[in-house]
Amino acid sequence: MGASIHEVARHAGVSTATVSRAMRGLPNVSPQTRQRVARAAAELGYVVTHSASVLATGRTRTVAVVAPYLTRWFFAQVIDAAGETLADNDYGVLLYNVACAESRARFFERMPLRTRVDAVMLVSLRLSDDETRALRKLGIPVALVGVASEAFPSVRVDDADGAALAVRHLVDLGHRRIAMVAGVGEAATAVPAPADRRRGYLEVLRGAGIAVDPSLDVSAAATFDGGVEAMSRLLARRVPPTAVFAESDEMALGVMRAVRRAGLRVPDDVSVVGFDDHDLADLMDLTTVAQPAQEQGALAASLLLDALETGAGPPADLVLPTRLVPRRSTAPPRGSAPLGRRDAPPLTRAVAGPRTAC
Amino acid sequence: MGASIHEVARHAGVSTATVSRAMRGLPNVSPQTRQRVARAAAELGYVVTHSASVLATGRTRTVAVVAPYLTRWFFAQVIDAAGETLADNDYGVLLYNVACAESRARFFERMPLRTRVDAVMLVSLRLSDDETRALRKLGIPVALVGVASEAFPSVRVDDADGAALAVRHLVDLGHRRIAMVAGVGEAATAVPAPADRRRGYLEVLRGAGIAVDPSLDVSAAATFDGGVEAMSRLLARRVPPTAVFAESDEMALGVMRAVRRAGLRVPDDVSVVGFDDHDLADLMDLTTVAQPAQEQGALAASLLLDALETGAGPPADLVLPTRLVPRRSTAPPRGSAPLGRRDAPPLTRAVAGPRTAC
DNA sequence: TTGTACGCGTTATCAA
DNA sequence: TTGATAACGCGTACAA
Hints:
Two copies of one chain form a homodimer.
Chain A: H1 5-12, H2 16-23, H3 31-44, H4 50-57, E1 62-67, H5 73-88, E2 92-97, H6 101-110, E3 119-123, H7 129-138, E4 142-145, E5 154-157, H8 159-173, E6 178-184, H9 193-207, E7 217-221, H10 224-235, E8 243-246, H11 249-261, E9 271-276, H12 279-283, E10 287-290, H13 293-310, E11 317-320, E12 323-325
Parallel strand pairs in A: 1-2, 1-3, 3-4, 4-5, 5-11, 6-7, 6-8, 8-9, 9-10
Antiparallel strand pairs in A: 10-12
Chain B binds a DNA duplex (16 and 16 nucleotides) through helix 2 and helix 4.
């Protein structure tokens, strides 16, 4: 389409090599030459052909972002923030969605990103050995968000710890019949959060000497509706739980909804805790465990940029903090001794960690 | 890195041309030759180098998707569906976020996608003349989602019509003091929906002979919190509205929240209608105007694929239907004549237009 | 059906 | 500081 480097060279009365140097701001070009080249390029509307540059340098200035969902809160936040950091450094984002087991298998088999990107970032995907191998074989930097791994650097929160925060809060309020609502995806093993958060849930129960009732541990789609469905099942039991820990705020909102639709009240009849600190959590007075989603995306992007610009640093496993954000969806169980009321939820308002740029 | 086409050729005892033909499934290759090439490629782990292929053919098999938000419901739906359609056809998605006026200006000026993609899809961006020109100059197919344009094919709904559906519903219920809650973004002119929906709002009011009160038309951030803020302002008036049309479900949920926080009830004291049919709308019993978001993304992607594979078809302007989904957030105004109750909201449950694949 | 040889547009090496 | 030229790896006329 546009002019090529040769025409610019001719136009400016220099060689193509000089044009290339001038265009990229390399040092060894005299100011006047640089000027002439710049003018010629502008006049001809010259633009470096990306593929030619890639072919010659071996660098694509592109990062692949691989995620099982785009529409769920956590994933959108991570991808958004990562994209911003990358764009700020003149890297493009090639987006891959591996929602279902089938597309995921196809992705790791064909590796469509091969020869197309300089680095890969995977969001909340627990990798099989084969997948890990396939990624390793790419020979480019890889970073994970939301999962620990011995193979690659990662940025995440401690999901078990976070869940423990939530469940301990419920135990401290006096609850003993505490349910867990977890999400199941297309591929059950795709996303690690549910299992890790369940681990935290179980640990706290055991630590508190509470007998674990497996029938209080229910799974459904990781959506609002899934939360409704799961809670409906719990409410259908002869003895429903007095509190619920939902693995995500999205599900927690569904849980709250189901409670209210059953004519019960939150937190009077059922306490609910979520995970994420979704934008809606504050609005809906949902007690939750906040995790810094944007930060995780931005940080993972930085990790990759560092590896690309300066050769890999130490293969970090950055664990960002979670924190309990008590709101009005949790309270002592009905009929608990008044002394249970020792700490009324202080109604802390979460500081919204505003989007960094713009 | 990996083996090149030459090594595969040598390994298979054929020429590079034959390897190229065999790898791409072109017709003129004998079955045995094809076999030999395939085996050689597999043994050497050969993969076509993308940039070299692009340089030789001029085709990138990549589409740029440009959007001002990733995290808002409509945008996530559109991008998700478009990405799926493109991936199914072996196209990659290069994602560009132009959230703020600054990044938008930089994007259209530098056009970082130039020479990197075969086509461009823009989501809910009203293009200036300069931006249109810049896109035209790329000389590649362009498609718009959520906006009409004389310059490029588009897929959208009629926002004014949709809004009219909502407001007429309120008027039919007997409301006359109807507020509008609209979103404002970083760049006020970035997204066209607010203005178009406002137009529908005003038209219905005028058509019904209702005097338009400009102070009932409030704007805030296009988020849950923005909805809360806008409604709080409306409730602070000496005479608050009896009904609110919010430009998006996200804002509508905030509006509902503000109403309830003020000790009022939905719909008894205030009716609320949204726009989108967000996953949460059903859950929250929010009456809304449904628009097919996934379909718009998928359709726009198909448009681009058609243009790429078969040369541009007619520059379509595909307008998909909206429909009112009455739920429990709307009712006749308090104190209205009983006959106003003529049609109790039938509680239609929206059919969720399930994600097509997987 | 297969092979030869050139072009795609840059960058990098080396010599001047 | 600048220029000539050889890669980079593939696709494709054209010839066989």
